[in-house]
């Protein structure tokens, strides 16, 4: 049996859908914090059990009988994210899983300027020490993140962000297909995968230009000072801790942490990766 955590989230739900195209529902289990949100999966024959990374006792039941477990990284900020991920990995080991997969990130590094990358690096280190065959999916930065910044720009006509650098923005659907492929077929990969990214990179100036073409109105890219951007975000209602957290992404991008591209994702999916333009045409 394959068990997938976070199966009702943006990435997890897509992975589940892809896996169900490749294997019988009775061979799949999901671990979710709210089982009512997975009622449709249960109706299809998927085993649905409650599993909460912050309540490790629940994971014993959720992971029971698992041959493989896909741990989708906890959506928790701060030190708690590491503890939650490690609890899930330890539970998978205790359940007797013969292989553990984890949704990491292309920028995973202990010295990253963006805190989630440090979480991924520490989680990968723990995985490697378990002695169980493992795979860290080094996913590219989600392209859907861009819509957060463009929402206000569509109203004001100005995309005001800190200085950035090219990022290999990557689509959820492509990453889900790759994960499903790696879960359901034999793979030569072991440990961290190559970067699972789109084939090209874009900075925010290019994103603004694309959004302008799609919407038919000018969206002007403006570079703001880091602290001025944080102050502006706080004025708009964003908690300071969240604004400073987000600033870390820009700082890391400027250091080139998200600039790598690699053909592995397209080899796994069997098609060209979704472009930012395609994503924005669908969502704007």
TrEMBL record:
Gene3D superfamilies for this protein: NAD(P)-binding Rossmann-like Domain, UDP-galactose 4-epimerase, domain 1
InterPro entries hit by this protein: NAD(P)-bd_dom, NAD(P)-bd_dom_sf, NmrA-type_oxidoreductase
Stretches assigned to the NAD(P)-binding domain: 6-143
One Pfam family per UniProt: NAD_binding_10
Record's protein name: NmrA family transcriptional regulator
């Amino acid at each position: 049996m394959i068990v997938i955590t976070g199966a009702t989230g943006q990435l997890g739900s897509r992975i589940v859908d892809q896996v169900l195209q490749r294997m019988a529902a009775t061979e799949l289990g999901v671990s979710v914090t709210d089982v009512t949100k997975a009622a449709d999966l249960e109706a299809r024959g998927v085993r649905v059990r409650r599993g909460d990374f912050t309540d490790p006792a629940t994971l014993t039941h959720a992971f029971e009988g698992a041959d493989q477990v896909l741990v989708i990284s906890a959506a928790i900020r701060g030190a708690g994210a590491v503890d939650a991920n490690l609890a899930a990995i330890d539970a998978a080991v205790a359940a007797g899983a013969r292989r553990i997969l984890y949704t990491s990130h292309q920028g995973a590094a202990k010295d990253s300027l963006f805190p989630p990358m440090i979480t991924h690096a520490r989680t990968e280190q723990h995985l490697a020490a378990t002695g169980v065959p493992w795979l860290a999916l080094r996913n590219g930065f989600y392209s859907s993140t861009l819509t957060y910044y463009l929402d206000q720009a569509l109203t004001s006509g100005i995309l005001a962000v800190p200085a950035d650098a090219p990022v290999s923005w990557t689509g959820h659907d492509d990453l889900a297909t790759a994960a499903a492929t790696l879960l359901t077929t034999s793979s030569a990969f072991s440990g961290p995968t190559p970067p699972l990214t789109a084939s090209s990179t874009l900075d925010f100036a290019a994103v603004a230009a694309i959004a302008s073409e799609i919407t038919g109105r000018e969206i002007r890219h403006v570079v703001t000072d880091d602290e001025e951007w944080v102050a502006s975000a706080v004025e708009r209602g964003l908690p300071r801790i969240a604004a400073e957290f987000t600033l870390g992404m820009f700082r890391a991008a400027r250091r080139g942490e998200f600039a790598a591209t690699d053909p592995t994702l397209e080899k796994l999916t069997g098609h060209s990766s979704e472009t930012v333009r395609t994503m924005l045409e669908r969502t704007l």
